[in-house]
Amino acid sequence: MVGAILILMLLPIINTSEIRSSKFRPIYSIAYWFLVADFLILGWIGQKPVETPYIEVGQVATVFYFLFFLVLVPVIGIIEKSLIRARF
Q1: What is the value of pTM for the model shown?
Q2: Taking a C-beta distance cutoff of 8 angstroms, is the pair 31, 64 a contact?
Q3: Tens digit of pLDDT per residue, the chain (88 long)?
Q4: How many CA atoms lie within 13 A of 71 on its CB side?
Q5: How far is C-alpha 67 from the geometric centre of its chain's CA atoms?
Q6: CA distance 32 to 39
Q7: Distance CA 76, CA 17 (A)
């Protein structure tokens, strides 16, 4: 739980994009909706009993949560930055 909160606090440092608004970042906006779906899955899994299919789904959703912030956010920022520089 502490790791999930710390990642949210580190988000301004992790973000490598020059554009801060997600409204003007099309790749990030698609990834954002995957994160919203992940939040819904994690909320649903938190209500279920600790049984075999729910444990694995929760583990996969938790891995995606951390990969989103630690890998996808910086990589998407680098990709969008190179696309902006290539256009101009």
Answers
A1: 0.86
A2: no
A3: 899 999 999 998 998 888 888 888 889 999 999 999 999 999 999 999 999 999 999 999 999 999 999 999 999 999 988 888 887 6
A4: 6
A5: 7
A6: 11
A7: 8
Contacts of 45 (CB under 8 A, 6+ apart): 54, 57, 58, 61
Residues whose CB falls within 8 Å of the CB of residue 76, separated by 6 or more in sequence, listed in order:
17, 25, 27, 28, 31
Contact 22, 85 (CB under 8 A): no
Q: Residue 72, class by beta-carbon neighbours within 10 Å (0-12 exposed, 13-18 middle, 19+ buried)?
A: middle
The pair phi, psi for residue 72, each rounded to 5°, is -65, -45
